[in-house]
Amino acid sequence: MGAELADRRSLVREKGVTSTSGSSDETVVKFDPIESVRTPIFLSSDDDRGFELASTLDLESKDIQSAPIDDWYLGCKRDELALCHSSEDPLVISEHSVRTKIDEARDTHLARACMARPGRVVLDAFGGWGIDGLTLSALGCEVTILEVNPLVCAMARYLAQELGCAAKFVCADAERYLQDTDEVFDVVYFDPMFPVHPKSAKPARRMQILELLARKDTDIGQVFELAKNRTRDRIVVKRRRTENARGLVPDWNVSGRTVRFDVYQTR
Ligand SMILES: C[S@@+](CC[C@H](N)C(=O)[O-])C[C@H]1O[C@@H](n2cnc3c(N)ncnc32)[C@H](O)[C@@H]1O
Fold first, then answer.
1. Fewest CB within a 10 Å sphere: which of 41, 194, 205, 255?
2. Which of 91, 107, 131 is the C-terminal boundary of a domain?
3. How far is Cα 90 from Cα 74, in angstroms, rounded to an integer?
């Protein structure tokens, strides 16, 4: 991840994005929307659909021969954007595998906890595959989705495109984004990775791969503190139903069979 971050920083510098503050040996750079940080997609020269995806998603196309060995990368499989690996089956998140979830979003616990309605301005600070953020978007919320991993963020952007959901994606660290932004949101939504639970059933493959790629060292308490100043109405944190809120006592919650949405009023 260190090298990847260094690459991304140098890419941002190349694009001339404003620097904020400096430490002794490096400039700390404001994370810019993914649009200016071009994540590579590895393609063979005759992959027309792959090049079309590279263009619509503003990805940098690279020769398949230079694809990483033993690491995940973006490619094109069965005409869809895919996460590929030299020794694993590719992962495609098809539009119809999440369509039902999004179509049935209205009466969900997520919608209730966020009080989702048209025009509500929401920051999904831990975007992942974007499914929760896109669900809120389908209910009319104006959603900004943050995701720190560029591969995951690209897959989420592709999913949004396929579903026809209008959401803004930013490939950024939530902590840094909240420090830098002037925006204020009605709701800031948190769905950080749950701690591993020894008794849980093996999750779906897309969640197993997310577990591998996701950032896990984020200081949630710190992001929560920063979010308070940028939230007009409420912060909503998704947790396992039985998880301890570790000192962050919510005002109320919406609890389901396996997960719970803790709601913290900020006004
Ligand atoms: C549990 S997943 C979110 C799943 C998502 N709600 C969905 O519906 O697909 C948590 C995500 O947060 C991301 N993440 C962790 N720390 C982050 C940070 N500091 N800034 C932005 N994203 C972060 C991880 O990379 C991971 O993809």
1. 205
2. 91
3. 9
pLDDT single digits (tens) 141-171? 999 999 999 999 999 999 999 999 999 999 9
Confidence of residue 198 (pLDDT cuts 50, 70, 90): low
Domain, as residue range, for 69: 2-91
Helix (H, G, I), strand (E, B) or coil at 65: helix
Check: CB of residue 101 under 8 Å from CB of residue 253: no
Ligand 1: residue of 34, 126, 132, 187 to mutate (most ligand atoms within 8 A of CB) is: 126
Q: How far is the CA of 127 from the centre of ligand 1 (A)?
A: 5
> Do 103 and 86 sit in the same domain of this protein?
no
State whether the beta carbon of 220 lies less than 6 angstroms from ligand 1.
Answer: no
Closest-lying ligand 1 atom to the alpha carbon of residue 214: 25
**Residue 32: CB within 6 Å of ligand 1?**
no
* pLDDT, tens digit, 9 for 90 and up, residues 17-65: 222 233 333 333 344 444 455 899 999 999 999 999 999 999 999 999 9
* pLDDT (tens digit per residue) in 87-132: 999 999 989 889 988 888 888 999 999 999 999 999 999 999 999 9
Tell me how far the alpha carbon of residue 134 lies from the centroid of ligand 1, in angstroms: 14
Q: Which residue's CA is the closest to the ligand 1 atom numbered 15?
A: 215
With H, G, I as helix, E, B as strand and everything else as coil, classify residue 207: helix
User: With b meaning 16 or more CB within 10 Å and e meaning fewer, what string describes 178-189?
Assistant: beebeeebbbbb
DSSP string, 89-118: EEE---HHHHHHHHHT-TTSHHHHHHT--T
The answer on 201 and 121 residing in a single domain is yes
Of the given ranges (103-107, 207-211, 259-263), which has the lowest mean pLDDT?
A: 103-107
Same domain, 105 and 146: yes
Count structural domains, the chain.
2
